[in-house]
Amino acid sequence: MSDLTIAVIQSDLHWENIDANLAMFEEKIWSITEPIDVIVLPEMFNTGFSMSSKSMAEVPGLKTHKWLIQMAAQKQALIGGSYMIKEGQDYHNRFFAAFPDGTFQVYDKRHLFTLAKEDQHFKEGSERIIVQYKGWKICPLVCYDLRFPVWSKNNYDRRTKEYDYDLLIYIASWPKPRINAWDTLLQARAIENQSYTIGCNRVGQDGNGYEYVGHSGIYNYLGEGLAFIDNKEDIILHKLEKSPQDEFRSKYSFLADSDNFTLETN
User: Fold this and answer.
1) For the chain, is the Cβ count within 10 Å smaller at the N or the C terminus?
2) At what angle do helices 63-75 and 18-30 cross, to 10 degrees?
3) pTM of the complete model
4) CB burial class (10 A; 0-12, 13-18, 19+) of residue 39?
């Protein structure tokens, strides 16, 4: 298993301005001179957390899709973030994971934030995905998903002794008033799933006047903080080592004692 060098980009966003956000993130990505394996962008990174789905959503394969594919190829890194997609008659808050070879995987946000009426503008996802990259199994989730541990559960196969994933990633637009929950739940998800866990949030103020204070971070399988950004635009660069997590899981196989259950989705 190779180690993974992660870049977590915490940034302010240009409200509902796709071109400005793509240009801004391209500049930030190219400012990274070290070799990197994975680049993580916030939720709705090209617009901000907007409910203007009818005017801002793209159909698959257009501008933001092509930009992500291009960035992944140019930096030879897996790159992921969410943006609005229209597919048929439905709109999705879709996490897009672009690989350097031009392939990609997508995950539609499962838990829509009803307090902001996200459920009235987007359709929830029904399937969790696992992204396999450089020997790592990565589970990408989006913002409000963080509050629902059943959806995040890292299942353990007692027969094969395999885990669902090795790295859990949450991208978010998590506002200032509830930032303590963000910090606490990221740590909790890392501990209960015995997994490296990344949270990528934004900073600044959006077009609705909501304030965001970042707190992007990386936690290990013990819930210990490995890297953290407070309320500023910055980039976390951190190398994740696979062998310490494997050794910890082998010595303390807590998930082997967890309950087995199936999850029904509507």
Assistant:
1) C
2) 0
3) 0.97
4) buried
